[in-house]
Amino acid sequence: MATSQASETQPSGQTRARGGRSRGRGNRHQRRPQAAESSGGSTSNTADPSAALAPVAGTVSNASNRNGRGRRGPRGPRRGGGNERPQRSIPGTQRAFGGHLTSNSEAGGLDIASAARLNIDAPEFVPGQSVATNNNRQQVKQHVSRRGSKSTAPDLTTRIHEDISNGEYECVICTNEVLRNSRVWSCSICWTVTHMTCVKKWFSNRARNSDQQEQQSTWRCPGCNSPMTDEPATYHCWCGKEINPKSIPGISPHSCGQTCSKPRGTCPHPCPLECHAGPCPPCLLMGPSQSCNCGKHVSSKRCGETDYSRGWSCHEICGDLLPCGEHECQKECHPGLCGSCTIPILSRCYCGRESKAIPCEERGDKLQSYNYGQLKTLDEILESDDDLPESFYWGSFECNTICGRAFDCEKHHCQKGCHPQDENQAHCPFSPDLVTHCPCGKTPLPEILDQPRSSCEDPIPNCKEICNKLLSCGHLCRETCHSGACTPCMQKIEVSCRCGRTKTSTICHQGNIIAPECMKICRAQLNCGRHEHGEHCCPGEKRAMERVSAKRKNKNVNIANEEFEAEHICIRVCGRELKCGRHRCQQMCHRGPCPSCPEAIFEEISCNCGRTVFQPPQPCGTQPPECRFDCTRPRPCGHPQVSHNCHPDEKACPKCPFLVEKRCICGKQTLKNQPCWFEEPRCGLPCNKKLKCGSHECQKQCHRPGECEDADVVGPRCKQPCGKTRGCGHLDVEPCHSPYLCKEDKPCQAKTFVTCDCQHRKQEVKCTATKTNPSPQRIALKCDDECLRLQRNARLANALNIDPQTHLDDHVPYSDTTLKYFREHSQWAQTYEREFRVFAGDPTEKRLRFMPMKSYQRAFIHSLAEDFGLDSESSDPEPHRHVCLFKTPRFVSAPMKTLAQCVKIRAAAQQAAATTPSALYADDSSTKLPYNALLLSAPRFGLTVEELDTAFQRNYASHPNVKFHTSFLPSDEVVIKGSGSWTPQVLESSLSSLKPAILQTARRLDLAKDVTLCHVDDSLNVLRREQDPRAKSEGGWSAVVGRSAARPRPAAPSALASTPLRSNFVALRKEPKKKLEEQPVEDDWEAAAEKLDEE
Q1: Cβ distance 933 to 975 under 8 Å?
Q2: How many CA atoms lie within 13 A of 1018 on its CB side?
Q3: Chain centroid to CA 715
Q4: Which of 980, 940, 948, 954 lies closest to 967, judged by CA?
Q5: Is 703:712 a contact under the CB 8 Å cutoff?
Q6: 725 and 732 in contact (C-beta within 8 Å)?
Q7: What element of type H or E holds 605?
Q8: Which of 13, 7, 9, 2 is nearest to 36 (CA)?
Q9: Does the pLDDT at position 494 exceed 60?
């Protein structure tokens, strides 16, 4: 029974932290009964006896938490509520007893015992009647065990304190409870309280949700979205006096316990309350003594009711003297100045012609004026004029009439405006004593008049000078001397437009010059960088051009520091859509990106599945969070979903990877192993449906129904060529014209061939046949020399019974380079030769591309292409460089002989030449290579081309029609190549006659040891030398000339020459070397040079 009673009374006798909820290990946070706390910590004898059984329940709790700190027994409450959290019942973690261990009698006894205590609500005792049971005890238990609710205090300060103390105040950022021991931050505008860590994260995330380049100096309060400037740096109490305040029982949460002392608006008294949250209450003290606005009364009020800025009004007449000095203010007691006097006063003008009532503030200075008769009656004399002498009055304003008073001459009258009148008449301005010059003032009157003026009525003569009086516009009067005012200026001036580009000739503007506008449109860019000015005649265009020019010269100038003209400042609203996609920028048009949206979202932002949520408030434009859970969307095809993270609707799920059978879009075939996501499988077959023309079939590959070739063609025709056979036998290439017949009015553009009579030559031409001219005349080809040669060979072959198809001659159609490479790489070369022949035999192929290969292999391909008559080209850089072949009109056919056959023919020819060397001498002279150059062997070290050309210049002069070019060979030899319009035989004869002189000069100047004739090609490769066997067999005139040139003096005939030869062999002997005679040295080298020139 004791255990049951303890378990029932424990919730009611335990003080709860954070709004009645307790948390801890075992009985760590076991609290005293509430009644004990209410009595200041002492235990009352009248407390519920069942509260003493609370430790029993704590013991049971400790039994279920043996590994925790609960085994140390009950502990007192932590200071300020500590890290307490509400105790939550988790199913399955604690054992609950749901039976009744007490009997009815015991329960009744307990009720009687409870009823026996002193109770203010006990019923009145009546003798002879049973004691009534009071059920208020159970109601009290239920009330105590109920969880605390939100505070309903009338003021914000008390609500914040109570909600934090009871654990009912939620942070607007993380939505967790704000506790007494939490580090908090409070907004100074809406007084919202949040965790310090949460608001710091909120402050740091403003850069993530805004543009990184934008330097933001403000941030938004998470509660009221108001702009804040101070960074949430430190945790302090409500009044800010203490940093990191400690939670002290008995005082408000997060309070330092000191006086608040915050200033309150215009009130001079600081807040007298203890450090508190929320706004300070109105001041209840008495304010200082304060006079009313007019200063007649003094009053003291409460500080909250005192208006320190505007004062107070007694609602009496002000009575202060107005600025006119004559009247008093008739307004009710008011703050500030009384203002000007508006009382109407009967006043008279200075000239006395008009009197009226005008406001006192509109009157001018009061001046005395004489009544010379303009006031007709005495009634017109005002009361205020009594203090003046007789015939005088006070004038206080100017009327709009002319004075009109007569001068002392009584002939002229004053033409001035209203002015005070003097007692004496004014002297006439036209009297002779005042007027001494003409009206322009340049000529004295005695110089103009014969007799002086005697009266003011005498006319004032004008001189013939130019007036030259300064006009109001700044020009001089150009009229001749005249009376009265000058006429308006009519001079023409040039006025520049506002931008200064154009000038306009116009009549003088009388000093008020207004610049006209030209039609030039300003194209200067405004400071926003997005718009042009676009206005006519901009005065700041020139300065803008200078600014842009200076900016181009100094490119390091910062755009933000650039000073724009006032005309080029954009005042439009930016209006661009912000990153949030909901709002537009409301700032003035500006450069760069717009700032982040200043609005906030006060709704939850969740992912698609709803399991990941951003709690409000969030900056506008915040995207849904990235969810780490799997996507739960079902596939429309019914296949299982591929495991992937939850994503927004804009992002599609991964494609279904399952393979299925699908019908192609044309419906001809069923395709297997097609991806499930693939919506348009195609079989790749031609459509072959009859088109609208009825003659052609659709050639498009598998496509949707209704998308044939003629789907977008109007009429019964298609886009394909006609394809019908024309009268000439070729196909009609005109567009389909079904159902009409071919007109054949245009010449046929098909290709055909014309040949010569022997059918050897052929040429491709256009057919050009029409319906009216089915057989056009074409120019026949004529047989050339090759045709005649083939005809002659055919006749010889027919006469000698030789089959040209099986007969092989010794002609080799390949170059030596091709044959040389074939000998070295015969197997590889035969492979590519076969590809060449296949390409050459296919008339439809026009280009052949080989795979990348090495440089020497590409050289063989180029050489072989040249032999076949094909064009070749290398493409792409290494290591992907390859060769492409092209068929051009110069290609006829592939050579009849293969490379292997030509190699055998060349080898047989060389073997025959080696066995019969005499055959070399029997060759026709036409096969010899003629000499076209001189070869200098063993040249002197350091010899240059210039030295050779200078040394041989005199020798070259003997052959003016031959041009000589000197080059050095890699073999340390020098080649002097001759060229000109000569035939090769004439060039060889010229070089042969020049050789002895070149040899003599070379040996005399020690330029080279020997000079021989040779034949070189364009690449300076020596193909024939004079020492070759061919050259040794040479005879005739060239040899005679050579021998005669080598010996300048005729030698005696030798015995061997006179003796007839008996055999084919002649014994040759070496002539002994003759000692060279030393030539005398000339003293005068210039004279010697002249002698040589004469020779």
Answers
A1: yes
A2: 0
A3: 50
A4: 948
A5: no
A6: yes
A7: strand 605-606
A8: 13
A9: yes
**Residue 709: C-alpha distances to residues 693, 712, 953 (Å):** 11, 8, 80
DSSP string, 245-256: ----TTS-TT--
| Tally of residues, the chain | 1095
- Sequential DSSP letters for 1011-1055: EEEEEE-TT--EEEETTSHHHHT--THHHHHHHHHH-SSPPPPPH
SS3 662: strand
Phi, psi of 906 (to 5 degrees): -65, -35
* Tens-place pLDDT, residues 937-974: 888 887 888 888 888 888 888 888 888 889 888 778 89
> What gap in Å lies between CA 347 and CA 393, rounded to an integer?
10
Which tens digits make up the pLDDT trace of 316-352?
A: 999 898 888 888 898 999 988 888 888 898 888 988 8
Backbone angles phi, psi at 938, to 5 degrees: 50, 60
| Dihedral sign for Cα atoms in the order 319, 320, 321, 322 | negative
Closest alpha carbon to 501 in 463, 458, 538: 538
DSSP string, 452-480: ---STTS-----SSB--PBPTTSPBP-SB
CA proximity to 458, closest of 432, 434, 479, 482? 432
Using CB atoms within 10 Å of the CB of residue 265, give its burial: 0 to 12 exposed, 13 to 18 middle, 19+ buried.
exposed
CB-based burial label for 705 (10 Å; 0-12, 13-18, 19+):
exposed
User: H or E segment at 836?
Assistant: helix 826-841
Q: Would you say 303 and 287 are in contact if contact means Cβ atoms under 8 Å apart?
A: yes
Q: What is the spatial distance between Cα 695 and Cα 707, in angstroms, rounded to a whole number?
A: 18
Tokens of 168: 């009912």
Cα-based torsion angle of the residue sequence 1040, 1041, 1047, 1053 in order, rounded to the nearest 10 degrees: 30
Model pLDDT for residues 262-301, shown as the tens digit of each residue: 888 778 889 989 999 999 988 888 888 889 988 889 988 8
SS3 label, residue 506: strand
Say how many C-beta atoms besides its own lie within 10 A of residue 1083's C-beta. Answer: 7
Q: Give the SS3 label for residue 863.
A: helix
Residue 998 phi/psi, 5-degree rounding, is: -65, -40
Under 8 Å between Cβ of 332 and 317? yes
Task: Report phi then psi at 985, rounded to 5.
Answer: -70, -40
The residues near 1001 (Cβ < 8 Å, ≥ 6 apart) are 951, 952, 955, 1007
b/e sequence 200-231, b meaning 16+ C-beta within 10 Å:
bebbeeeeebbeeeeeeeebbbbbebeebeee
Q: How many Cα atoms sit within 13 Å of 503 on the Cβ side?
A: 5
Give the CA radius of gyration of the chain.
Answer: 64
Say which amino acid occupies 712: D
The token pair that represents 544 in the structure block: 């803008």
Scanning the structure block, which residue is given the tokens 């194209």? Answer: 523
